[in-house]
Write a structure and sequence with these properties.
This protein is α/β, with parallel strands linked by helices. It contains nine helices and eleven strands. It has an eight-stranded mixed sheet, sandwiched between helices. A three-stranded antiparallel sheet has the order 2-3-6. Strand 2 and strand 3 form a beta hairpin.
Amino acid sequence: MFGVFIKILHQQKQVQMRNEFVGKKCKNSKELRLWNAVKIGWIISCTFLISILCNAQRTIPLYNGTIPNSIITADEEYASAQPVFFKVTRPSLAIFLPPPNLANGTAVIICPGGGYEGLWMKKEGWDVAEKFRQIGITAFVLKYRLPSDSSMKNKAIGPLQDVQRALQMVRQRAAEWKIDSNKIGIMGFSAGGHLAASAATHFITSYIDNPDGTSLRPDFAILVYPVISFSDSLTHMGSRNALIGKNPTADNIRLFSNELQVGTRTPPTFLIQAEDDKIVSVKNSIVFYQALLKSNIPAGLHIFPIGEHGFNLEPAHSNWFNYCVLWLKENGWLNN
């Protein structure tokens, strides 16, 4: 699968570079050298990406057989060069096992963001999983279905079904992957943060078949510049529209406003965001933190003064993961 993906990326980039350089016709040797340098740079980038993907020992389908709540449709999934995946209808789980000498039994399931319209699989998935793998945490990157009326009977619950299935699968196969079944957490970025928060607050209701009564409750949650609320004043409207439609009912707005769903069994949670986030208001993290405190749930919150959405700026860019690791250590999820 990854080989096909890299080939697609390579073809896309070749077309882009050809348009930018060949289409303009290299007029001298300097331009030709530049053209060759760009090609070499792209090859190095692909090699680096392949090395990360190879650390995912394998990717497995999330469901055996029929995917629940699905409508049979053609597989139209595709990826841009970042890569961002679109039109995902076949969910899967990429497994990143740590070196045996570092493995500590803790696991985390990562939900990439993308406004419920795409999945930033590398930046908010594979790259993060590799960081966890290197410190002994088993990481899983969830490629969840993106809401669609053409591929789902009820698009509002499709992603939640997938994250519940991921928690169910990891807990049921904990011994196989040398995981402590009481140390399985959830992590999400942006809209993936909304999905992770949904998993942390909606686990009492099982949206999937669960005949063995496997716990669907994550043991901890890490929410990174998350969409939390679907209220008009706080929400990221694109995420809300994609999940529950442009004209949602008041009940659905409340149901998926996760600050209103926090209870006494919501797991310990760490939130991290930047004050200058102009895509998702930092008030999303604040209201969820306040709800956790009200329910006496152990919680942490760090707000960078600068970082923007996606943590592309310092100091957030270089430091956000270290704050997550510190919180995990302080709460016993990661050995010192």
